[in-house]
Amino acid sequence: MSGHGDPIPMMSQRGPGLAGEAHVPGDKSISHRSLILGAMAVGETVIEGLLEGQDVLDTAKAMRAFGADVTDHGGGRWSVHGVGVGGFAEPDGVIDCGNSGTGVRLIMGAMATSPIAVTFTGDASLCSRPMGRVTDPLALFGARAEGREGGRLPMTITGATDPMPVRYTVPVPSAQVKSAVLLAGLNAPGKTVVIEQEATRDHTERMLAGFGAEIVVEETAEGRVITLTGQPELAPQHITVPRDPSSAAFPVCAALIAEGSDVLVPNIGLNPTRAGLFETLREMGADLTYENPREEGGEPVADLRARYSPDMKGIEVPPARAASMIDEYPVLSVVAAFADGPTVMRGVKELRVKESDRIDAMAQGLRAAGVEVEEGEDWWIVHGRGQGNVPGGATVESRLDHRIAMSFLVMGLATNAAMRVDDGGPIATSFPVFEPLMTGLGASVARA
Ligand SMILES: O=C(O)C1=C[C@@H](OP(=O)(O)O)[C@@H](O)[C@H](O)C1
Ligand SMILES: C=C(OP(=O)(O)O)C(=O)O
Q1: Would you list the DSSP string of 60-126?
Q2: Does domain 10-26+243-447 have CATH number 2.60.200.30?
Q3: Between 20 and 30 A from 135 (CA), which of 117, 284, 311, 327?
Q4: Which atom from ligand 2 is nearest to the alpha carbon of 55?
Q5: ipTM confidence score
Q6: Is 231 assigned a ligand-binding role in the annotation?
Q7: Cβ(29) to ligand 1 under 6 A?
Q8: CATH architecture type of domain 28-229
Q9: Residue 326 Cα to ligand 1 middle (Å)
Q10: Measured in angstroms, how far is the CA atom of residue 260 from the centroid of ligand 1?
């Protein structure tokens, strides 16, 4: 199990409101995939705007351990000299994916059809998360996994020597599982078919097509059927990473709840498989607009403008939207506390197996801040108190979970008394510039 530095206690409190432009970093999902597919291509892939958060840096390190040449040119520009599909070398040491579920699961898929044995580990959070959801389908290709009970890290995967293509229906709505199977399918001869009943983020499919793989996506009565032809030669790409909507969520939600705010968050990727939060906020009555909508690098992009919205109402979030905003429920629950009436969130069992059990982590912190929350295994309800009526004044545990830490720091910008988190360290996994970005907008967020 890898370590984590000394805790960084942080606090936030109400101030004059947020103003200005918030330039959030590159998309985490797309950054991981750029490095992994770059490492599986032949030749030099150039990546602009890579997220330099710890999760992605751990994936870069792993790609080097497999033999790819990964170089940081500064200013977010990186290059990867790939080793080709099936060209991964057996790493000398353990692959430590830190806090990153996406990193470990995608890399397991990428190596599972090569004849190498790889031991994976991570921090205490990652070592508590389920890996069976990935190792089960990888076993169908012929890979073997040996780990701790319950399919937990540390775990050694021995890749298939004679991989077979598979047909697999993903049993949980998970882009990580879908992607692991597709990446494994790259080095299996013939057609690998993945079926998902609920559409999840489709960055892997889009990027595989961009690298020249033969990939067909069909909407059928069975679900979304993705067919990948194995053993292509992937052509290196020039990738510009759009800015992360999951990071944009924090300054956007802060502006909606902090009195007097008016914030512009430019160049945000609005792929429909990711933009569910913004639709939900608009349905709640948020003053949130998409300015200058356009297409960049095959992804829809717009500038988001968020203004203080004192009259938001609680709503029932459509469960069908869950996958498109799965990482945004923690910060949505904060906004819901400032809306009038209940916000009902159903069909969200996956929240219990993220970096923390996010329903439990948010429910406990919200209650400590004076907000009533009800919960069940796959649902929760936040009873909004309305703007100006949220007490706050609590210290909450971030549980090695960046989104929990950032959500409560956003909350403290509008509660009657300051909010504190015991450890803001995990924020560096996805949003290393969170603190200067927020203070640059005038928010009172600080180490405490
Ligand atoms: O594929 C990805 O990049 C991700 C998929 C989601 O996880 P699941 O696949 O577990 O839902 C999401 O929560 C995670 O932050 C990133
Ligand atoms: C769930 C998340 O990431 P991962 O699964 O990659 O750890 C997240 O970033 O919210």
Answers
A1: HHHHHHTT-EEEE-STTEEEEEEE-TT-PPPPSS-EE-TT-HHHHHHHHHHHTTSS-EEEEE--TTG
A2: no
A3: 327
A4: 6
A5: 0.99
A6: no
A7: yes
A8: Alpha-beta prism (3.65)
A9: 8
A10: 34
Task: Give catalytic residue positions.
Answer: 327
Please tell me if the domain spanning 10-26+243-447 has the same topology as the one spanning 28-229: yes
Minimal-distance CA residue to ligand 2 atom 5: 101
DSSP 41: B
What burial class does residue 3 get, using C-beta atoms within 10 Å of its C-beta: 0-12 exposed, 13-18 middle, 19+ buried? exposed
User: For tokens 């993945």, what's the residue?
Assistant: 194
Per-residue pLDDT of the chain (448 residues; tens, 9 = 90+): 555 689 999 999 999 999 999 999 999 999 999 999 999 999 999 999 999 999 999 999 999 999 999 999 999 999 999 999 999 999 999 999 999 999 999 999 999 999 999 999 999 999 999 999 999 999 999 999 999 988 999 999 999 999 999 999 999 999 999 999 999 999 999 999 999 999 999 999 999 999 999 999 999 999 999 999 999 999 999 999 999 999 999 999 999 999 999 999 999 999 999 999 999 999 999 999 999 999 887 789 999 999 999 999 999 999 999 999 999 999 999 999 999 999 999 999 999 999 999 999 999 999 999 999 999 999 999 999 999 999 999 999 999 999 999 999 999 999 999 999 999 999 999 999 999 999 999 999 999 9
243 labeled binding residue = no
Q: Name which residue sits closest to atom 10 of ligand 1, judged by CA.
A: 174
Contact call for residues 320 and 328 (beta carbons, < 8 A) = no
Relative to the CA of 355, which ligand 2 atom is closest?
Answer: 7
Backbone phi and psi for residue 163, each to the nearest 5 degrees, phi listed first:
-65, 145
Give the C-alpha distances (Å, rounded to integers) separating 14 from 3, 168, 367, 391, 445: 34, 50, 19, 12, 9
**What CA–CA distances, in Å, run from 30 to 51, 179, 202, 266, 433?**
9, 12, 10, 18, 18
Could you tell me the residue ranges of all domains in the chain? 10-26+243-447, 28-229
Q: Which two tokens stand for residue 248?
A: 């944009």
Q: Is the C-beta atom of 179 inside 6 A of ligand 1?
A: yes
